[in-house]
Amino acid sequence: MSELQRFQDAFVAALAQRSVAPIAGWLPEGEDQPAGLAVYRNTIAKGCVDALAANFPTVASLVGDDWFRAAAALFAVEHPPAGAALLAYGEAFADWLARFPPADDLPYLPAMARLDRMWTTALFAPEADALDAEAFALPSDALAAARPRLHPSLAFAWFDSGLPGLWLAARQPDPGEMTLHEDPQGVLIVRPEDTVHSRLLDAAGFAFLAAARDGASLGEAIAAAAQADPAADLATLFAALIADGVFVGLDLGDPA
Amino acid sequence: MPPTAGLGLKSQHYAEALAAEDEGLWFEVHPENYMAAGGPRLRWLEAIRAKHPLSLHGVGLSLAADADPDPTHLQALKALADRFEPFVVSEHLAWSAWRGVHQPDLLPFPRTQAALDRIAANIGRTQDVLGRTILVENPSLYLPLTGHAFDEIDFLAELVRRTGCGLLVDVNNVFVSASNLGYVAEAYLDALPAEAIGEIHLAGHGADEGGSILLIDTHGAPVAEAVWTLYRRLIDRVGPCPTLIERDDDIPAFDVLMAERDRAHGMLTGTGACACPQPLTAEPADV
Questions:
Q1: Are A12 and B101 a contacting pair at CB < 8 A?
Q2: What is the ipTM of this complex?
């Protein structure tokens, strides 16, 4: 190992241990308490915490700055960034919150982190032009057989309780009193142009998208939606998804 | 007009940056903030770049680590440089990534011959991949490390000589490091090889909230008068050079930053539109 490598290992250890002992060989004699090590330590912590605050704004707004920054600092020690692009930092944060004892009485919090993560991932997803309604003006047989291609930014999920509703409410400017409803619900997040769009998704909508993601045709996806909720208004469901900008292409397959 | 004085581009100022018409204005970003597959900030950057020169100022390449630059990071940097055609690309004389962990800071190292060899190789590799030279920025220092075989000026000059890279002189870092480590900022600036300087940074600093006498390179305050004075001294000797007002924390309104920018622009162009005690010697006017 080179001396520079040894120095780097020692410096990382010094930061972790909050002690200059590992780098004593590279400091003047008697330099026991240099303030400089704390400067680096604080800058690193701030960089990580600021990035997490930017990437998990709903979590931060629900628990307040002080609690959030303290938790984020602890997370950063256990899960430091793996890369320099901090816009991607925090992959493990939702799962970590689920195991973080001070969050035990905030059982909704990990889901809020998961949704924030989905939102940020959508924000930075690749670009693609969404299809408008005209693209679907096909004979009904062709339309039913067409396999939709979904926007690269699309994310959707199903939750056992009203966590998506809580998340959407918490993101309003003046949320006020918020309630976590009991009934399961889904969420859709997509960024067809410059803005991330998120809304609730019902069982039929979720089933449609899950089928489409699995390679189903439009006909098959609609059937899955109808099976999930026989009372669903399928035409409205489909029109809403087109308006959301979730479709970027239709594979019409081989002519019969 | 070539780039004179510029600003670090912040997302809250995208619209104003796009609308600005000032001559010589340019913008700088950290490429790491744009290493995404898509999204609105990339579109903003494209629009702003169509109108103003752009500089990419990397913080994560970790040139001073005893390891090759991360190939994925280097490719992402190349992709941004190819797409946005910046007039300058820069990085730091520091390390941040080590053994798979990225520390969001710029960390120090003993300036040994081996470190020189490693950093020269890393700069060479970077320049080869990018297909262009880069500038290397002098660091702000907080620890009186021993084991240096070179002073910082000689170390930087050797890197310039061996790799053909240039220098980004952060005058605030010179001020902060000199204060923290007990050397004379003026002497440091006077010794920099003028022909290698491709960009200058000006930024604010602050006291150590931990209570020590250290100054911290916070980028969270206006540029101090003492730093403006050092800047004047530098450009009087080396001539005009693209200069950035660097503000990363406690971001004020766009026009507040532009006022600092305008002061630097005035000093660079000799238009004297500032309260400088000694106006830059302008070209003799035709009489």
A1: yes
A2: 0.94
